[in-house]
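Recall from the previous chapter that SMILES is a line notation for molecules. Here it describes coenzyme A.
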Amino acid sequence: MIDIVPMTAEHADGVLRIYQQGLDGGHASFETAAPTWAAFDESRLPAHRFVALDPDGTLLGWVAVTRVSPRPAYAGVVEHSVYVDPAAQGRGAGRALLRALIASTEAAGIWTIQSGVFPENEASLALHAAAGFRTIGVRERVGRHHGAWRDVLLLERRSPVVV
Ligand SMILES: CC(C)(COP(=O)(O)OP(=O)(O)OC[C@H]1O[C@@H](n2cnc3c(N)ncnc32)[C@H](O)[C@@H]1OP(=O)(O)O)[C@@H](O)C(=O)NCCC(=O)NCCS
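With both inputs in hand, we obtain:
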């Protein structure tokens, strides 16, 4: 069993450790170093961040969102990140975290969740497809990662219930 609970400051060390592990894997993000907790905390919306816990309290993964724009037209559009400890992958934590995020954002009237995913990140693409995300398209050579240009797939899930 995996518990999904709101992320708080007590989870900071585990969240940033798992974030760094994902970055070190090379296919999670253009970032190469996890931020400080203060920077993470300031940029992620407090109402839509969760952690996955084992019954013994071990932190397995997390999900969080940022706003994509200050413009009122995009008030219901957020961009998310989801990271699961490599030792805990394949057990349903990612799916459970996305399910919790979709529920909390829809309850708050947020209509679109988007994310950029490297084409090589097969696990993330499969997870998001299973959760109802569609691929908008390929952003070609949109950024440099360790000196090399990389494509990014833009994914989004438009809520069917926020109308
Ligand atoms: C992507 C990630 C979050 C998936 O988390 P997870 O807990 O391992 O995923 P789950 O166990 O919940 O799997 C849910 C679904 O995702 C897909 N999936 C997960 N891992 C997969 C893999 N290695 N290959 C193919 N599909 C995979 C499957 O469809 C799976 O459903 P199934 O078990 O019924 O087949 C995890 O691999 C991760 O943290 N990767 C590093 C960080 C990262 O890349 N984050 C995403 C940035 S865009």
